[in-house]
Amino acid sequence: MPGIDIAALVIFAGALAIAAAVPGPAVAAIVARVLARGTRGLAPFIVGIILSDVIWLSLAVLGLAVLAQTFQGVFLAIKYLGAAYLLWLAWRFWTRPVSTISAAPLEVREGGFPAFFGGLMVGLANPKAMMFYLALLPGFIPLNAVTPLTFAELSIVTFAVLAVVFSAYVIAAARARRLLTSPRALAVVNRATSAVMAGAAVVVATRS
Q: Hey, which of 107, 112, 136, 154 would disulfide with 40, CB 3.0 to 4.6 Å?
């Protein structure tokens, strides 16, 4: 079965990269996490966010926008669970002593599956991603004629593009974090991180 032609994949990748580069709850959560804890244990968190996008892509490809309306309560529960997770992170950052901001044991302990699940919840709390894919994909493939190959191609491109965009934000945030060495500066970062997380939670919870 033929897949998507290269030109269409490139255009899809470019549109996705532009959309992903616009700061939203996911980018805010990644940057705030790097500023507060560094990059150790961050990979599972990012993988969780990217996997959530692939899930939304899958729902869009399968034409399940109607399902989202039918089971609106489930989608609302997921959205509020993601918002609650961001609020929990905000509280942790606000109450954490400055001396533990860069502590490696904390970073390692909060990696792994908890970080992956947290990233997944942050991503799934934004069903606008599925609307984006539903709006974009018909220009490349008919959603009622998707083959396993085309779905695999779209999933791989989505994963790769988001990994590159999020990595760029991680690098920028990590460089900024290295400039912050005084206890006062670290305290400011802690409070600012908490505010960013709380703001992202409000955005997630109030977006229709």
A: 107
Token pair listed for 207: 């977006």
Q: Tokens standing for 125? A: 């709390």
- Please report, as a single letter, which amino acid is at residue 106: L
> Which residues are CB-neighbours of 112 under 8 A, at least 6 positions away?
41, 44
Each residue's pLDDT tens digit, 99-153: 444 433 333 345 688 889 888 988 888 767 777 787 777 666 666 667 788 888 8
Structure tokens at 127: 């069903």
Residue 74 CA to residue 70 CA, distance in Å, equals: 9
Task: Report whether 130 contacts 68 (CB < 8 A).
Answer: yes
3, burial (CB in 10 Å: exposed 0-12, middle 13-18, buried 19+): middle
Distances (CA, A) of 128 to 91, 131, 156: 26, 5, 20
At 11 the three-state DSSP class reads helix
Dihedrals phi, psi of 141, to nearest 5 degrees: -145, 150
96 secondary structure, DSSP code: S
Cα 134 to chain centroid, rounded: 18
| Model pTM score | 0.70
